[in-house]
Amino acid sequence: MEYSYPLDESWSKQEMIDVVNFFSLVEQAYEQGVKREDLMITYTRFKQIVPSKSEEKQLFAKFEKDSGYSSYHTIQKAKESQEGKKINMKTA
C-alpha cells in the first residue's frame, strides 16, 4: 500500500480511526472480501462523521484516485447484498 487514507485534520483521533477503519474495509473488499455487516457498520459510522454527501463524494474520489478502489461501488454492492453475505469486489 503506497497511498494514504483521506482524512480531515478537524476530526478527533477516534473519528480518524473510524474513517481509516472504513477505508481499510473497502480495501479488504477488493483484496480478500469482507463481511457485509462489518462494512455497513463502519459505513454508518463514517456517515456520522461525514454527513455531507458532497464531502463524502470528495473523500471517495480521493481514495479511489490514490488506491484504485471504489468506495461507492463497494457500498452499492453491500446495500444490494443480503445480510450474512461476504462482499468481494474481485468478482464484481
UniProtKB/TrEMBL annotation:
In terms of domain of life, where is this protein from? Bacteria
What the entry lists under InterPro entries is as follows:
BH2638-like_sf, UPF0223
* Entry similarity comment: Belongs to the UPF0223 family.
Protein known as: UPF0223 protein NC797_04365
Organism whose genome encodes this protein? Terrihalobacillus insolitus
